[in-house]
Amino acid sequence: MQPWSRYNTLFRSERYGWFLHNTLSGVMLELDESHASIAESLRDGSLPSSAEPAGFIALLEQNGFLADPGKERLKLMENRYWRNAACFSTTHLGLTICPTLSCNFACPYCFEHSQGDATVMDEGTIEALVAFIRKHGDAKHLTVRWYGGEPTLAFGIIETLTAKFIELFPDYAGAGMVTNGYLLDQEKIERLNDLKIASVQITLDGTEETHDRRRIHSNGEGTYQQIIKNIDLLMNSSWNGSCAVRVNVDRTNRHEYAVLRKELLDRYKGRNLTVYPGHVNTDDGNSCDRQCSLCNREWAAFQLDGYAIEGITPRGGLYPPSGIQNLCIATSLQGYVVGPKGELYKCWEDVGREGMVIGTVHDEQYVTNPELLVRYSIGTDPYGDSECMECKVFPVCGGGCVNRRMRVQQFGESSLEYCSSLKESLEKYLDAYMDKWHTNQICKVVLGKGRPPSMENGYRMVQPEMKMRNEVKNPLEPLTGHEQEGSGNNGAPNKTGASLLF
To answer: Could you report the per-residue pLDDT of 42-54, keeping only the tens digit for each?
Structure first.
């Protein structure tokens, strides 16, 4: 018989009884008291006292609850292989483009060091960027997300570059844009389809009073009503894309999220609009009070309370998928953030920071800071981190935010958190998932659409194994969606393990 897996979590739900979950296989079983006792004995290293049919032991072995540590390590290496294959793929080129770092807002948690930079991408940089793209001759697809600063302040640059992108890639489509929404008027909205912009993210900071206190126009006025007016225009237009409203959430406004979410979903019922919470984290040296930020434990409580009290399921669901690869633009060979002067970065968080530039589109050898590139691509690999490899939640965390991991482990910024909130709250998420699962089973019975798996044998499968797909997935595809949750900077996505899950 194989030993107890390090990736097991055996826990008792006050509402639903005993469960056994394995983060590496992605399987969860519901157990009666007798089988929970057997599982406890196996966990504690002793043989079960009861004469349990071999079927249960075989089930535990088949689904990774009892497993050879060597085989578990091999499975992690398989995950690492597919992660590296995706990260170093040359079939896709992903660009986050900042046509300007200038912004018409003065949000206290944003890029304070670059808000005053009025530089707009000039013709020389545009041509250099096009030449830079041509150098990536193996790329069959181009993925673009417009960012800033505030990209609508340089809308003409978006139009100029898009025309060139369509010439280079006839199938160019699905671009995204992160905007504060203030200047998204009817004229710009009517251009979105032609510009192949399929997704727009707009940020609010709570209800009108709170938002107008935090997302302030550079002239000192509130911005909420104008943004809502523009979302109205967007949702009533012929644009065929999707809009995601990100609501920045911290300790001071978390109680407003459910109210605002309901208000927006009611207002735009039947329209292609979603609302999701953004976890605001501020950096050292930012004038926004760091004490308002939610730590991982508080963020988990916010999401779980949202489900328990308001029925709001976190983005991506409550169940943590196994085999997570934790891919983002920062770890991708052909993923770049491009500044208005043609400077290149590896992460949204680095925009405007001179010391975080890896190169420029103006140089023939565009990577001029290979040390930083290596720090991102190799130095943040969680599979080389013994602490991660020993962690029970690593298969569903994937190592956390690579930007923060690098800053903590390589630059000494110890105050930052980069692990997934699952590290401290896995059982609570699983318990919430069970509540949703049981509710769904009851609904199926009532509607005559089937019955739940039987507990006749004293156990049943709640969540089946999630097989890893043996294919190279494009790590840059999420740039055109709203999967990411940001860390404060104008709604910048920050691809962490938690954000992939929730």
So the answer is: 999 887 665 667 8
Q: How far apart are CA 314 and CA 212, in angstroms?
A: 26
| CA triple 98-235-142, angle to 5 deg | 35
| 191-205, 287-301, 323-337 — most confident range | 191-205
Domains parsed from the chain with CATH numbers: 8-69+424-462 (no CATH), 84-371+472-501 (3.20.20.70)
Region of 497 on the Ramachandran plot (φ > 0 left; ψ -120 to 50 alpha; else beta): alpha
Q: How far apart are CA 189 and CA 262, in angstroms?
A: 25
Amino acid identity at 283: D
Which strands form 175-179's sheet, in the order they lie side by side?
A: 273-279, 242-249, 197-204, 175-179, 141-146, 92-97, 335-338, 343-345, 359-360
Strand ranges, E, within 356-443:
359-360
Helices (H), 248-369: 257-267, 296-310
φ/ψ (deg, to 5) at 10: -105, 120
Query: To which residue do tokens 């318990």 refer?
Result: 431
Average pLDDT over residues 480-497: 36
Determine the Cα–Cα distance for residues 250 and 244; give it in Å rounded to an integer.
Answer: 19
Name the residue type at position 251: R
User: What's the rounded Cα separation, in Å, for the pair 484 and 105?
Assistant: 22
Q: Residue 476 in contact with residue 332, Cβ under 8 Å? A: yes
pLDDT at 113 over 90: no
Closest CA to 198 of 164, 147, 240: 240
- Radius of gyration of the chain from its Cα atoms, rounded to whole angstroms: 24
Query: In 3D, which of 12, 10, 32, 36 has the Cα closest to residue 23?
Result: 10
**Contact of 85 with 162, CB cutoff 8 Å:** no
% the chain with pLDDT above 90? 75
Assess whether pLDDT exceeds 70 at residue 340. yes
Q: Are strands 343-345 and 335-338 parallel, antiparallel or unpaired?
A: antiparallel
Task: Say if residues 461 and 25 touch (Cβ distance below 8 Å).
Answer: no
Condensed to tens digits (0 to 9), the pLDDT of residues 217-262 reads: 999 999 999 999 999 999 999 999 999 999 999 999 999 999 999 9
What is the reported pTM?
A: 0.89
